[in-house]
Write a structure and sequence with these properties.
The complex is a heterodimer of chains A (406) and B (387). By secondary structure, chain A is of the alpha+beta class. Chain A has twelve helices and 13 strands. In chain A, strands 1-2-11-8-13-6-5-3-4 form a nine-stranded mixed β-sheet. Chain A has a four-stranded antiparallel β-sheet with strand order 7-12-9-10, with no helix packed on it. In chain A, helix 5 runs antiparallel to helix 6. The two termini of chain A are 46 Å apart. Chain B is mainly β. Chain B has two domains: 37-156; 165-386, Methylamine Dehydrogenase, Chain H. Chain B contains one helix and 30 strands. Chain B has one helix spanning 252-259; strands at 9-14, 28-34, 44-49, 53-58, 63-67, 71-73, 76-81, 86-91, 99-104, 116-120, 147-149, 156-158, 165-170, 174-179, 184-188, 203-208, 217-222, 226-231, 236-241, 275-279, 285-289, 291-298, 306-311, 315-320, 325-329, 344-349, 360-363, 370-371, 374-375, 383-386. A four-stranded antiparallel β-sheet of chain B has the order 2-1-30-27, with no helix packed on it. In chain B, strands 3-4-5-6 form a four-stranded antiparallel β-sheet, with no helix packed on it. The two termini of chain B are 16 Å apart. Classes of the chains: A alpha+beta (406), B mainly beta (387). Chain A binds chain B through residues 31-34, 36-37, 55-56, 59, 61-63, 65-73, 75, 107, 110-111, 114, 117-118, 226, 233, 236-242, 344-347, and chain B through 14, 16-17, 27, 51-53, 68, 83-84, 106-107, 172-173, 189, 191, 199-202, 224-225, 262, 264, 266-277, 290, 313, 332, 367, 369-371, 376, 378-379.
């Protein structure tokens, strides 16, 4: 196990060498008093006054956290997120300056993850690097041994008494194509906005062979991620919480889970770059207007039974299936009226109808709305055109990767 | 340590910028301390605290700023402190000259020119209390109740005259208004239930709280993301975000800290979560409440009547008719005054004041944010009370 000394050296090596460079360039949004406190915290840090630096960092974190929770998330000024990340950086480094024991390192890693989740990139994406160093210094005892069930995830027996596998033969299915050319895809699917399943595109990605529960726990087990708890996000009991990947797997995937937990819509590959090497960005994304950096890649990891209620997204989507199968139903934007979207601002992109158990008295038009469906299997990519309504239910333990592009 | 006198002010909570006029030692004051009042003309009638500095206004019109913005100035009737802006109501030179509303950068020491200024019409002078004393403490509501100030653009917002506003309070992203008839209105962002209309939707214009119609309110107070009002009969109604127990309702994060060693209470932004059930320690189901979107009646110990409420960003305090102080909510910086740094999700009496009678009090908070047409003002942890 690496000693505290090497950890401290490794962390210091990541930090800018001078006090002057350990600063943020901030605009007018951040008040002078905060700038002053940031400066003071750096002084304390460079002066070796770790305890006082921790105090100042806490105040910085608490103050900026309140800013992050004011107004819609998209309107939160990036500078506040950078201030928050900076506070996380100082706190994480101070936490393991004194001791390199596993508890301190795990706590510091959690702080880094908070900075990655809620903050914005600072000092050349330093938090990602600090997190990687901390992760490497966690004694292997911190990573729990793989559970007694060693089988491949897709062979796992169903935990619930009933797995309703829809009979898709009676439904209109999404067409499938094997490695279409860019032009063909654009002309027949992208431009007219038609869904299609692409075969032979993702099936050779390293993730298809590598991603087992054991591997995920090895690479990401001690990292903190957001988890959605509850059957679907339209439920009253639905909530979001934070936990490590290990905790998520043990609570919501192994061990007879009591509730449904879903590691959903999380940019895991920004947080843990090592995992990003196991996937690729589909070439067809180059047909869009945006840059590659603007593509949002999300991980969707959960047990059998997770449901995403019928909803639409404002961007094109490639949904790549890695592990397990998903039942997916698609409705054209032209059918929106028959899907009865919520009239609240928060849920205006979500249908009120429970797709597999619709209340046809309340939502009569839904019965006649035409749709396409499929069971998406490992190695396949589903193209969901922009604003196309989609409903997703996991038939097995499932890992999907989505690419949102424009 | 200053002597305690009748009519003294006390403070406790975060003072990382040395803004306590009391002992001011260290970054946090966990138990109430008497404030050293400035100089001879020491009758402080208004205190407005922001996160990094505090503004004190004396009856003689003297304004003192402590903490990160230390300075002093004269001719002030009222002051309202936020991190972005210090708003001051200054008396004109002589009667009939009107009152001027000035906004200053907090670090400017009130020298040079204000960032902006607005003359408040002389008809507002008539709003003075009987006896001719200028009414302090109404900011951000302006004299005449035709408008209010905010630390972000638009700095000056008109109010419909038919609202007949008596008091106005700003949260981080919402506003509360109490009218002459005791009706409460709210507007702004509602994602944390702070508007009290039963939904999470935003409101562009002041909307009356239907749930409270028929119960005349005497006081309102706004926290960062929660709202409180006190009825004329001494009952407390509370709604909004309960992430640190600031509504005195069971809070999941407090329960988790009690069970686990490490307590990282912050989490991602919550959207729309309402009641979550979880097992209480005895094994029974205890409903945790993250968001309370419509007013709930609060239970204080039997026989206690509230007369005044005030809120920090994530905590709440209430003074009773018998001069007692109860606090609850976020306590990490000692802002609850219970000599520790625990957060609480139920009201607890501040023992320091048991043998003193509190007359009025005030919390200070800072920060503001703007959304729609509603400016917000929020936060902070320092509380001042007058014994």
């Amino acid at each position: 196990m690496a000693g505290a000394g090497t950890l401290r050296e490794a962390l210091r090596a990541l930090l800018p060498p001078t006090k002057e460079e350990l600063t943020l360039q901030l605009g007018e949004t951040v008040e002078r008093s905060v700038v002053r406190l940031l400066r003071e915290a750096v002084e304390l840090f460079c002066g070796g006054r770790g305890d006082e630096c921790l105090q100042a960092s806490e105040a910085i974190l608490d103050y900026s956290w309140e800013k992050l929770n004011t107004g819609p998330w998209r309107d939160v000024h990036r500078d506040w997120r950078r201030v928050y990340a900076f506070g996380c950086l100082l706190k994480a480094v101070c936490l393991c300056e004194e001791t390199g024991d596993a508890g301190a390192v795990a706590a510091a890693l959690r702080v880094c993850d908070m900075g990655l989740l809620m903050g914005a990139a600072i000092l050349g994406d330093i938090l990602t690097k600090v997190a990687a160093v901390l992760q490497a210094h966690l004694p292997s005892g911190k990573r729990p041994a793989p559970g007694p069930a060693q089988e491949q995830p897709h062979e796992k027996k169903a935990r619930h008494d009933h797995v309703r596998i829809p009979d898709v033969r009676s439904e209109r299915t999404v067409p499938r194509l094997r490695c279409p050319s860019l032009q063909h895809f654009r002309k027949h699917f992208l431009v007219p906005g038609r869904p299609v399943i692409l075969e032979g595109v993702a099936d050779q990605w390293p993730c298809m062979k590598k991603w087992s529960l054991e591997y995920i726990q090895d690479v990401a087990g001690c990292r903190t991620v957001p988890v959605e708890v509850g059957s679907r996000y339209t439920d009253e009991e639905w909530s979001q919480t934070l936990m490590t990947v290990n905790e998520f797997i043990s609570k919501y995937i192994r061990d007879e889970p009591r509730d449904v937990g879903y590691l959903a819509q999380h940019q895991l590959f920004d947080q843990i770059p090592e995992l990003k090497r196991d996937i690729s960005i589909p070439d067809y994304c180059c047909l869009g207007d945006g840059d590659e950096e603007e593509i949002t890649i999300n991980a969707w990891f959960g047990p059998q039974g997770t449901v995403s209620p019928l909803h639409q997204d404002p961007q094109q989507n490639f949904l790549a299936q890695v592990t397990g199968r998903k039942y997916i139903r698609l409705y054209s934007p032209q059918e929106s009226e028959a899907l009865y979207p919520h009239d609240t601002h928060l849920l205006h992109n979500t249908s009120q109808v429970d797709v597999e158990n619709p209340d046809l008295e309340k939502f009569p038009k839904f019965a006649e709305a035409p749709f396409l469906s499929c069971i998406l299997c490992p190695g396949e990519i589903l193209f969901i055109p922009v604003k196309y309504w989609h409903y997703v239910r996991a038939l097995d333990l499932s890992f999907s990767v989505s690419f949102w592009w424009s | 340590m200053a002597e305690e006198r009748r009519g003294s002010w006390f403070g406790f909570g975060f003072c990382g910028f040395g803004q306590a006029l009391g002992s001011g030692r260290g970054r946090q004051v966990h138990s109430p301390e008497p404030l050293q009042t400035p100089g001879e003309d020491a009758d402080v009638c208004r205190v407005s605290a922001s996160w990094s500095y505090t503004a004190f206004v004396t009856r003689g019109g003297r304004l003192e700023l402590s903490g990160s913005a230390g300075c002093a100035a004269g001719g002030c009737r009222d002051a309202w402190a936020s991190e972005a802006l210090l708003v001051v109501l200054r008396a004109g030179p002589g009667r009939g000259a009107g009152t001027e509303l000035q906004a200053w950068a907090p670090g400017s020491a009130l020298s040079g020119e204000p960032l902006w200024a607005h003359t408040v019409g002389p008809e507002a002078e008539g709003e003075d209390a009987p006896g001719g004393e200028p009414q302090a403490g109404a900011l951000p509501l302006l004299p005449g109740a035709r408008a209010y100030v905010s630390p972000r653009p638009p700095f000056y917002s008109p109010l419909a005259p038919e609202l007949r506003a008596r008091r106005l309070e700003l949260g981080a992203e919402h506003a509360l208004l109490l009218d002459e008839a005791g009706q409460v209105f709210s507007w702004g962002q509602g994602r944390h239930g702070q508007l009290g209309h039963g939904t999470l939707e935003a409101e562009l214009e002041p909307r009356p709280l239907e749930a409270l119609q028929g119960v005349p309110m005497a006081e309102v107070a706004a926290g960062g993301w929660h709202s409180v009002c006190v009825s004329e009969t001494g009952d407390i109604y509370i709604w909004g975000w309960n992430e640190s127990g600031q509504l005195a309702l069971p809070s999941r994060s407090l329960a988790e800290v009690g069970k686990t060693a490490a307590g990282e209470a912050s989490g991602p932004k919550e959207d729309g979560s309402d009641v979550r059930t979880a097992e209480g320690e005895s094994g029974g189901l205890a409903p945790f409440i993250a968001i309370q979107p419509f007013p709930a009646l609060l239970d204080l110990p039997p026989g206690t009547d509230a007369v005044k409420a005030s809120c920090g960003s994530r905590h709440t305090a209430v003074v009773t008719r018998t001069g007692e102080l109860y606090t609850w909510g976020w306590g990490k910086y000692g802002q609850l005054g219970h000599e520790d740094t625990s957060s609480l999700d139920r009201p607890r009496r501040v023992e320091y004041f048991v043998d003193k009678r509190l007359q009025s009090f005030l919390f200070s908070t800072d920060q503001s944010n703007q959304n729609v047409n509603c400016p917000g003002r929020k936060k902070n942890q320092y509380i001042f009370l007058k014994g």
